[in-house]
Amino acid sequence: MSILGFRKTEAPAPKNDDLAAFLQGASIEVMPRTAEKVDDFAAILPRGTRVYVAHIEGTPIEEMVATAARLRRDGMEPMPHFPARLIADRTTLNDWIARYRNDADVDQALILAGGVAAPHGDYATSMQLLESGAFDGFKRLHVAGHPEGNRDIDMDGSMKNVSDALAWKQKFSERTDADMAIATQFCFDAGPVIDWANGIKAAGIDLPVHIGIAGPAKLQTLIKFAIACGVGPSLKVLQKRAMDVTKLLLPYEPTEVLTALAAHKAAHPDFNIEAVHIFPLGGIKTSATWLATHAKDEE
Question: Keywords for this entry (predicted)?
Fold first, then answer.
């Protein structure tokens, strides 16, 4: 509506205080090829943001380390992936760690099995990497979590192997000086996430959870990634959205699922999800903009 030729501008929607608090300390991830598209990470992310450096099969370690060093120069905290099944042997593992430490001052790592079926060398599980002792002296170690299970690990559709692995990692955390947390696969439905988080806590797993959430993206893009990554029951949220022609062409945003999780956290302060990790499937700049819009303003 306009009056006397002046267009009325809509005031920005007020921020949801619970959601803004829940997004404090959110992390995000990049690959070397996506990092190349960002001129300055400090221009799109708060300084000190933890940025995972995702290690995709076939990416040379030189590119991985260069990306971590670039993030460090831009004021970020790089946390590279160490996928067990892509690491040939102890010599290779030690080399990667030395490169990251010397060139990018890395003291954080995400330890995971890796998304390939057969090991490329001596390591098949994240537990083998952890118990190798190679990460002694790291300040922070994250391990993988699967709120909806993982068919590559539990082919029968159960949660037995992933649950046993978390129990092992819990015991490992009790004998290391490093801060540890569980970083999860991305999900789209708050209910199953809450049930899973409460379930592992009841089972004696007190490692804090960094819940994986897909950033804004086209619906078709998210469905493709969700199927490829083995996302379970919460995929129905996307499929239901795809059936609604009024939403089919609109980009997905994680506001609804995160608002529900934030409300649960506000009502239950001891809830074991302590942070959010964004998978920027629709582009890192798009996810960073969404975070800036909904997160608490910097002091």
Answer: Oxidoreductase
Number of domains in the chain: 1
Cα 45 from chain centroid (whole Å): 15
Kindly state whether residue 2 falls inside one of the protein's structural domains: no
216 in a structural domain: yes
CATH code: domain of residue 100: 3.20.20.220
pTM: 0.86
Dist CA 10 CA 8 (whole Å): 7
User: Residue 183 pairs with which residues in a beta bridge?
Assistant: 144, 210
Q: What angle do CA 69, 71, 75 make, to 5 degrees?
A: 115
63 token code pair: 């590119």
Report which secondary-structure segment, H or E, holds 61.
helix 61-73
What are 172's two structure tokens? 């490992």
Residue 203's domain spans which residues?
15-294
Q: Which among 70, 30, 19 is positioned nearest to 53, based on CA atoms?
A: 30
Q: How far apart are CA 181 and CA 275, in angstroms?
A: 10
Answer for the pair 43, 76: CB distance below 8 angstroms, yes or no: no
The string of pLDDT tens digits covering residues 238-255 is 555 555 544 555 578 999
Q: At what angle do helices 190-202 and 255-267 cross, to 10 degrees?
A: 40
Instruction: Give the CA distances from residue 251 to residues 157, 217, 276, 288, in Å, rounded to whole numbers and listed in that order.
Output: 31, 5, 20, 15
Q: pLDDT digit string (tens) for 106-161?
A: 999 999 988 777 888 999 999 999 999 999 999 999 999 988 755 566 555 556 77
